[in-house]
Write a structure and sequence with these properties.
With 360 residues, this protein is an alpha+beta fold. Helix content is 33%, strand content 29%. The strands form 3 sheets. The chain has a 6-stranded antiparallel β-sheet. Strands 11, 12, 13, 14, 15 and 16 form a 6-stranded antiparallel β-sheet that branches. A 4-stranded parallel β-sheet has the order 2-1-3-4.
């Protein structure tokens, strides 16, 4: 018997969207949590054939903590993670999360050696693209344009040295294992007395948090402190390429590709350089971005090309930067980048409905 399963946190909105879609086509959905996977409390049968969808493990502290504990390799690590209390927005434990996330995805992949499971998106590929640095290095080997990377940031002083050595006056500093603009910093350095850091990072009672507002820092000591405190989180340094500008907005593009076909392009417009929609930025139709048809074709082409390099990803959201000259660059491959609510195609199909129909 063919059954659909979805692995996601217990109260995931994404599960409900997929469940609703499957029910429209006459299917039921079995929800398995990541904690079920860790504790082996899921129920599967070798007599059934399964189609498995994985969803983001974010937005649930119990899941977050359980996955980090699952990745621990020493008693001291376990003790540290066990002491964690929910502190919404705190920027911490990126590397511990990455270890646990990769380990649980590996365990999920191994289910296919016990049961008959087809993964819509392969767990090992999901783990691979989760690492921004590794993904961009891989794409460059395929001759796909990405913003130049100056290396890994291991401190404020060495960051300045790298920028001076490469004659770069502005860079993005990004956690390799972050998401949703968490911990991202845009840094401009002319000389010691003229530098500025833009970030969603805010400090409260000596704790760094991810904010929903962009904050501007100009005090060199404060800038150095924030960067130095973030360096344990494997930060990559990426050249800050000014984005496409139209109607006083900086614009980049989320392209959802399903089974090699572009399902939609969403332009994201912002008054500043960070465009993530959850920060209150604008969701625009591609027609409202000022992008000519020939550049739109380049955006679609590079997104499809990226997906072709990951044949075990059947859908993803590709973040594309277009510079002021119309050149296109790949910023990120997001295996969970399809949750774009209110977006439909010409036939009125949602992203989830398009995924079902193209993947069936």
């Amino acid at each position: 018997m063919l059954k659909h399963i979805c692995i996601a946190p217990k109260n995931s909105r994404r599960v409900q969207f997929w469940k609703k879609t499957l029910e429209q086509y006459g299917h039921e959905l079995q929800h398995i949590t990541y904690i079920d996977i860790i504790e082996d409390t899921y129920v599967l049968s070798p007599k059934n054939q399964y189609i498995c969808r994985l969803e983001s493990a974010g937005e649930d502290f119990d899941t977050y903590k359980a996955i980090m504990l699952f990745g621990c390799t020493s008693s001291s690590e376990i003790q540290k993670i066990e002491q964690l209390k929910e502190n919404f927005g705190e920027l911490t434990n990126f590397n511990s999360w990455s270890k646990g996330w990769k380990k649980i995805l590996s365990k999920i992949k191994a289910l296919a050696s016990i049961y008959t499971i087809d993964f819509i998106n392969d767990p090992e590929t999901i783990a691979f693209v989760f690492d921004k640095y590794k993904t961009q290095q891989f794409l460059r080997t395929k001759k796909i344009a990405c913003p130049p990377i100056l290396g890994i940031c291991d401190g404020y002083a060495s960051l300045i040295q790298k920028m001076l050595k490469t004659s770069k006056k502005q860079v993005f500093i990004k956690p390799s294992y972050g998401s949703s603009a968490s911990g991202i910093m845009a840094f401009r350095y002319i000389y010691p007395e003229k530098q500025v850091l833009y970030s969603t990072i805010k400090e409260v009672n000596n704790i760094l948090y991810n904010s929903l507002k962009l904050i501007k820092y100009t005090d060199p000591k404060k800038i150095a402190s924030i960067i130095n405190r973030m360096t344990p989180h494997d930060l990559l340094i990426e050249e800050w390429i000014p984005k496409w500008s139209y109607n006083n907005l900086s614009i980049d593009f989320r392209v959802v590709v399903i089974k090699g076909e572009v399902a939609c392009i969403v332009a994201r417009g912002s008054k500043h350089m960070i465009t993530n929609l959850h920060l209150g930025n604008q969701k625009l139709d591609i027609q409202d971005s000022g992008v000519p048809v020939q550049i739109q074709e380049k955006i679609e082409a590079i997104a499809v090309e990226v997906m072709a390099t990951f044949p075990k990803l059947n859908y993803a959201g590709i973040d594309i930067l277009v510079d002021r000259r119309g050149e296109v660059y790949v910023l990120e491959v997001n295996a969970f980048g399809d949750m774009l609510l209110g977006i439909t195609n010409e036939e009125g199909k949602t992203i989830y409905e398009q995924e079902y129909e193209l993947l069936s």
